[in-house]
Amino acid sequence: MEKIEEKKIIENCLAGNLEEFGKLYDLYAERIYRFIYFKTHHRETAQDLASQTFFKALENIRNFDPAKGLFSSWLYRIAANSVIDHWRKQKKNLNIDDIWDLRGKGSIAQDAENKDHLERVRQYLEKFSPEQRQVVIMRVWDELSYREIAEILGKSEASCKMMFSRALSRLRKEEILAILILLFSFKII
Amino acid sequence: MQIILEDLYSVEPGLRKHEEELKKILFEIVQLRPEANFDENYRLQLRRQLMVRVSEMQRRRASKPVWENIFTGRTPWIMAGALAAVILIISGGFLVQKKGLVSLNLKQEPLAQKFEKISLGDNAFGSLVVGQSAQGTLGRGGGGGNGSEAYGLGGGGSASVPVAGDAKMIAPFYGYKYVYKGDPLELKDDSVEVLRRMGFDVAASGLGKLLSTFGMGMVNLASFGSLNVQTINFVSEGSFGYMISANPQEGSVYISQNYLTWPQPFADCRDSACYEQKRLRISDVLPDEEVLKIADEFVKAHGLNLSFYGPPEIMNEWRLNYEKTEDKSQFYIPEVVTALYPLMLNGKYVYDEGGNKTGMSVSVNLREKRADGIGNITSQKYEASNYAAETDVSRILKLAEHGGYWGLYYPESANIMEIEIGAPTVGHVLMSRSKDGKNSFLLVPSLIFPVIGQPNPNYYTAQNIVVPLAKELIEERRDFWIMPSPAVDAPAAAEGISTAEIKN
After folding, report:
1. Is the ipTM of this complex over 0.90?
2. Is A8 within the bounds of a domain?
3. In chain A, % of residues over pLDDT 90
4. Tens digits of per-residue pLDDT, A29-83?
5. Do A154 and B30 touch (CB under 8 A)?
6. Domains of chain A: total
7. Is residue A178 part of a domain?
8. Residues 6 or more apart from B219 whose CB is under 8 A from it?
9. Residue numbers of A between 110 and 129 with CB closer than 8 Å to B
10. Is A74 on the interface with B (CB under 8 A)?
C-alpha cells in the first residue's frame, strides 16, 4: 500500500471513519503477529497478544498524532508493551521483556516444532546485549526501518544504527560465522 | 540486504571492505528467523471482531465529550470481513459448474427460528471472568452490542492506554461518582441463570455434493475426515450487491454491502478538497421515519424474524454533537444511519456492558437511500446454567458507585462529577468471552440502574449503569475499582516500562 494511501486511511480514522481501521489491520496484521511471535514463540500467545494490540489500537486511534511519529511505530509500540505486560504477568519475579531473556528462568509454553531451532537461535543471540538484540531482530527479522525502530525503542536513529553496526562488527570479529554455518548445517539435517 | 548494508556503511564506512562476510552473517540471521505461520482463519476472525467493535464504538460516540468528538463518526454500518470457508455465488439456476465457480439455487423456505433454552448443570460454562485463558485474551467484539473496555465509561476523559510518547493530552478529565437515589435494595436469590448463545453444528458432509465440487480436482475434502463448517460467506453480484457472512458456530449472521458493487463516492479523491466537496450535508440526511421505513422493508424482504426484538430506534447520537457544534458547516455528516432493533428477553430489553440497548442493527446508506447491511443477526437458542449470585447489597452498590461493571473511578482526580442513578430493574446484559480462540456470548442477569441526574448533558449521555448479579463477576471487578489517573503523556512507556506498571 502506498504511504499516501495509508496516510489517508489514518486521517479518515482520526476523522471518525473507524471502519477504515480494517484497512490498517489488513496492512499490519501479519507483521504485528510475526513481531510478537518472535518474542513469544507460542502461536496461541502471539494470537492473543496480537488481538489485544489491535483492539487497543482501535480503542486509542484517536490518541494517535501523526505529527509525532509513524503510525507503524505507534502500533508496534502497543504490541511491544503487550508482550512486556504478558511476560511480567507470567514471570512476576523476573525482569523479562521477551522470550530471549528467559534462558534458564523457568518453563514456558513454546511451539514444539520450533523448540530445537529456537534454542540454537537463543545461543546465537546471547552474544548480543539486549538492546543490540532488539535492534538486530527488528531490522533483519521484522524488516523495520531505523526510524521505526528508533520510535519504538525511544531512541535516536543514529543510536539504533550504531547498535546494529556494533552487533555485526562483533560477530565478524569473534568469527561467529563458523558457528553460524555449523548451526545452519544442523538445521537442515 | 543491500539497503541494510548501505545503512551500516553510512555509520562505519570501514565495514565496506568486509562486505562478503557481512552478507554471510546477515544471510544466516535471516535463515535463523523462526517460522511464524500466520493463520488465515485467525486473521479473518480477528478482522471481523474488530469491525464489530468499530460498530459498537460508533454507536457509543455520543458518550464522549463534544471536544473529543468534534467530527463525530458515522453511525454504525456493518462490515463483515469474515472468514471464507466456502464462497458461493448466488444466482438463478441449478447446481452447475461455471467458470470454476458454483452457482446455487437456494429454495426460499420460511424461517422457523424460535427461542430455545437447554438447561445444563451449575457452572456449566466454566469461569465467567474475562481473560481466564492462559494468555488472558480480550476477544470482545463478537456478537455485537458489547460494552466498551474500561476506557472512558461514563464520559469525560477517556482513560486511554498510554502508548509511548504519542498519547495526547485529554482534557478536561473527570471522574464520575454514581450516587444511588432509589429505594433500599434487597437481593434474595442466591443463584442466577446465565444464558450462553448456541450456534449450529453444520457438518461439512451436509453440504455434500457442493463441497466435492468445491474441491475442483485440487483437494479431496473427504480425506480430512469429519469436518464442520466454521464460517461461510455468500456474495451477491449485480449493482448494490451484498455479502452475507454466517458463523454457524457462534450463531451469527452479518450482512454488509458488497463494496465492489456499490458506488464509492470518495474512491477518486486524492486531496481533502475532494472529500470536502463530496461529503454529505445536513440536508442530505433522511428523516427518521424514512430511515425506519427503509430498514423495515429490508428486514422483511429478507425474512428476518422480528419477534425477538422491540420496536426499532434510530441511533441519532451524532445529532447531539451536531447541535452542540458551533460551526456546523465543518461537522462530518455520517454516510450511514443505524436503526437498532433492540433484543428482548422475557419482555425486557437486553443491554450491553455499557448500559445501552443491544440487538440487531440495520444500517441505511443516506447517499443511496438503501439499507446496506444488518449486523448482529443472532441465534436465539441458548444453554442455561446457574451461577452463584451476589447477595451483598453493599458490594452491588459499591460497584454501581464506580460506574458499574466497566466503570472507573478516579479518587485522585480533581474533577469528580456526581451522577444520580435510580432504582434498578433486573435485565440481561450481553457479555462476550473469548477462550482458546473461541468466542462465546453470555446473557447475564444484571441490575440496570437508570441515570436520573446528569450534571451536564454536553459531557455525559450514558443512559444506564449495569451491575451483573453473578458473584464471580463482582469479584473480578474489585481489583479494578480504584485506578490511578491515567498518564496523558507516557514517557515511561517509551523507556520500556509496561502499561501494566503504569496502570498499577
Report:
1. no
2. yes
3. 24
4. 999 999 999 888 888 889 989 998 999 899 888 888 888 889 999 999 999 888 8
5. no
6. 1
7. no
8. none
9. 113-114, 117-118, 120-121, 124
10. yes
Task: Provide, for chain A, the percentages of residues in helix, strand and coil under a 3-state DSSP scheme, each rounded to the nearest 5.
Answer: 75, 0, 25
Interval B315-343: pLDDT, tens? 887 887 788 778 888 777 888 889 999 99
How many Å lie between the alpha carbon of B163 and the closest alpha carbon of chain A?
Answer: 6
Q: Are B30 and A140 in contact (CB under 8 A)?
A: yes
Report whether pLDDT(B70) > 50: no
CATH of the domain at A30: 1.10.1740.10
Cα–chain center distance at B491: 30
B499 confidence band (pLDDT: 50, 70, 90): very low
- Find out whether B432 and B141 touch, Cβ atoms under 8 Å: yes
Residues of A in contact with B496 (CB under 8 A): 84, 97, 153-154
Type of residue numbered B138: L
Q: Is B34 on the interface with A (CB under 8 A)?
A: yes
Asked, for residue A179, whether it belongs to a domain, the answer is no
Nearest to A55 among B39, B53, B73 (CB): B53
Query: Which residue blocks in B164-265 are alpha helix, DSSP H?
Result: 208-214
> In angstroms, what CA-CA distances link A144 with A126, B36, B37, B408?
21, 17, 19, 37
Q: Which residues of B are less than 8 Å from A121 in CB distance?
A: 32, 34
- Which residue of chain B has the CA closest to A86? B135
pLDDT band at B390 (very low <50, low <70, confident <90, very high): very high
A18 inside domain? yes
What is the overall mean pLDDT for chain B?
72
What domain range is A80 assigned to? 1-102
